[in-house]
Records
---
Amino acid sequence: MNHLGSELGSVCIIGNGLIGGSLLRDLAARGVRVFGSTHSEAAAARAVAEGFEVSSSLIDVLSRAESELALIVVAVPFDAVASVLDAIAEHSPSCGVTDVVSVKAPVLELVAQRGMRERYVGGHPMAGTAESGWAATQTGLFQGAAWVVAYDYARECAGAGPSAGQGAGGRVPDSWVRVFGQVCRMVALVGAEAVPVTARKHDETVARISHLPHVIAEALAVTGDRGGPMAQSLAAGSFAGATRVAGTRPALVGNMCETNATPLVEVLDEYIALLNDARATLAGNPPSMQALAEAGHTAHERMSARSGARRESVSPVAVSSRPVMRVHPGAPGWVAQLEQIEALGGRVEVF
Amino acid sequence: MNHLGSELGSVCIIGNGLIGGSLLRDLAARGVRVFGSTHSEAAAARAVAEGFEVSSSLIDVLSRAESELALIVVAVPFDAVASVLDAIAEHSPSCGVTDVVSVKAPVLELVAQRGMRERYVGGHPMAGTAESGWAATQTGLFQGAAWVVAYDYARECAGAGPSAGQGAGGRVPDSWVRVFGQVCRMVALVGAEAVPVTARKHDETVARISHLPHVIAEALAVTGDRGGPMAQSLAAGSFAGATRVAGTRPALVGNMCETNATPLVEVLDEYIALLNDARATLAGNPPSMQALAEAGHTAHERMSARSGARRESVSPVAVSSRPVMRVHPGAPGWVAQLEQIEALGGRVEVF
């Protein structure tokens, strides 16, 4: 048994926003050697004043990452990812790379274009607030959250399908296996749960449970507001809850949805079809909404069963509701194990 | 100056669910002589065991209401309202009547069919939880909530329009003026804020800010659930918040939406049009969602400005964000005052 990936080592975080900055705080608090860069000198100065190793020179930081063989976490908005990957290709040719961008297939494409797939493992922590920027960063942001780990490259190397990776683990390059292990260890260190998913499945899923909710909250805010002062006066908790994410910066919402436009348009079509059906039965004689109300209630019970289990725990140690599988990266059959975990929406612990 | 309506007197609550039961608790706690009825003997026994005067005999309760000239609060589901009004017509011919049903025009129609408009003032507290029934009742449920008070009859008597009620207050029957005062006093006693609205405006507004959110939450729950175990695993706080009201009993949601179907279909059409627009720009090249994201954010800021002011108060006495006007029911010009308050989404205090 080899021990590739058994060490996390240094971590280099590019970007100091809500996710990158909160990750920096958590890793530093756990004693990890962590440093990073931000595009703004003022932002770097604020982080340095709090005792963090943050610089506004991307090249300096990437050079240091190379010398320490650090794991590089790309935590910039999607439209800045290509140029950061270019800089990594030039200044950190030996480092493993992951990211925290909210779409995975488009990032994977940029990585492939630069021939970096053997050392890239996509990531996406399902955590955040309506706020953004260093000022919004906090410790513990990722506690109990799913942290998607995209393993497309391993599937392709091992051969996709039900028997994928059976005795063929050796075909996944060691460099990728090592990065996979590093990412999973980093995720565990900040209290999150590594959920293996392919990029396409991830993008379709977040279109359903993250991007679609943003679109419909924006549209609901507009529709409510058209009701004028009386709507403002009568709107109660249910309206506020349903439109909370419309408080997110519009540019952030726009970029997120636009980057995942293809899967989002598909689920938006599904969603609009459901509303059209409800509209038709409500306009009927007699009006009816029983079908949607019952389907929605059943779906809600199923969707909240897992988070419900997490919420109701009275144990001081949070109990995860995601099934867990312990995996040794690179061991025979390990990619097939990841596929089994994905089918369950489960989490992986590496050893 | 007369003092019609300066006394609340006894209150008789028909129906012992979340709203009726919580109102019973609050009024009893404030020393009001309050009694009521529920359709089930078991439910009545539970309330009696807690020290409340609740009976399962509607006729007994309505006869007592008549003898005490109590204000009758109809707190039953809409489909039971007609038969309760019939019983009131027979057993409580002298009592003022209000209700807490979530639509106002259909109730007003039932009242008009029975010739009871002169003693009926429609009501709707904008408060509730996803739970229902006596077990879910609580004290303080209405604190700071808007409590709609429908004043259509006064407008019609005084003559609608900008000069309504100028010097014509006498034309609104004394019986109605007295009930209006009683309802406003009861609302103030439980910490809620009386917001005067016409039935039609109320029904259109709640379609926007209450019933539409229910429809879209049900449809979102269904769409998310179609993502299977991975969607269950990755769904985070934003999904849970956006679908919370899908946890409400389906029959309750169905009845509420169906009773207000006409205004709801209209706002649903508005809403679907917004989604279709977003779908079109997201399917464009390049995809865009900036227009909706910006409109939604602006609308959200406006909608949350008032509730924000309430939430952020550090004063031990909650500060209302609704403009207030003090009105003496029946005084010259008082109906015109109510129209001014309605235009602001404000609240009325009676003296």
Note: The first strand of chain B starts at residue 11 and ends at 14.
---
Amino acid sequence: MKNELAVSSFFPFWEKMEQRHRELIESRTNRLELSPGRIIGGDDKSCLGLLLVINGRLKAFILSNQGREVSLYRLFERDNCLFTASCTMNNMNFEIQFEVEKKTSVYQIPPDVLEEVQSESVEMAQYIVNLMTSRFSEVMWTIEQILFKSLDARLAAALIEQQAIDESDELIITHDMLARQMGSAREVVTRTLNYLKSEGLVEIGRGKIKILDYNALYDMANRD
Amino acid sequence: MKNELAVSSFFPFWEKMEQRHRELIESRTNRLELSPGRIIGGDDKSCLGLLLVINGRLKAFILSNQGREVSLYRLFERDNCLFTASCTMNNMNFEIQFEVEKKTSVYQIPPDVLEEVQSESVEMAQYIVNLMTSRFSEVMWTIEQILFKSLDARLAAALIEQQAIDESDELIITHDMLARQMGSAREVVTRTLNYLKSEGLVEIGRGKIKILDYNALYDMANRD
């Protein structure tokens, strides 16, 4: 058996919690394997509870009534997926969905367990405040990008992010995927990509984009 | 002395809190009078703590580096202003600012008091979770409007909101103010207003807009 993250390692305050809370979490936590392409949330109204990402990748996004999608943030190993526990949140009236981007293993702490521990343990309640603040920050960052950044800077940022995820300068990505990521329209992305190409920063192929000048893209992304 | 909201009335769980926490809050809470036009947050880096709105009106907004402003939500009597306590939040790396829209009285619970109570009282920590979720929801609603709604529907919604705030069909508002509210550009707002005018829904004057057909605007705002 390989050395894997334990449930306790997700909670920095584990030792401070009462023993009955630790036992409750350990005895009721499940391990789930999520297949690529699966969507969590949305029509699937299941409230899974708090998911702790052991490995893999999830993408958080929102969807308009017309089906337009905007990516919000990604979750990797050691991240916690709080909004899959939305049924435990009184005042939450928006919906964040998740797409499993690659094979992902998670610990699942069921909603009733989360609620019980959170209502009795000040450490857990504080932890949830911090998690919420941290997700709120990521969403605000995305929103500020969408609202305030010029399109070329945003596209450059999206390409750099994708390069970091793929760990390669050859990105396997369509204009449509980029558009969803940026909360923009495909035609607009295509036009902006052609501009980056004309500047010699990228090469455009079918379903892929090659980064030719990473530093120039980086500067463009971080320009105000 | 007129009958006014007590600090305790802002916390539905007041009686459940330990006496030392109640005493700490009561002895350390200040009352502040905020003048219209004052901006809280931003350059003014003061961390006021948790503000409880006794009466008046505050507008929450974000500002881009280029100075573009987008309104997020408003706070009225009995609302709590959480993000003025941002210094108490570990993972918060975005900035929401507040504009005092009319003479406003608040109770101010200083950041150190909030931190102390929140780290010891599970009720207070849970309350902060709820408050955060509720603000997160308001921001997401605004964002979805900006991202997904067509401009005429958003303008109609903004006019209806203003009508509710002013309690009058004659809105004292400029195109520029509407643009900031909607996270759009002034020219775009002017163009869309002219469209609403041509449809007979509004009358446009200098610095004011008169609503002629509330029901049609309402339908437009709630159309998908």
Note: Chain A has seven helices and nine strands.
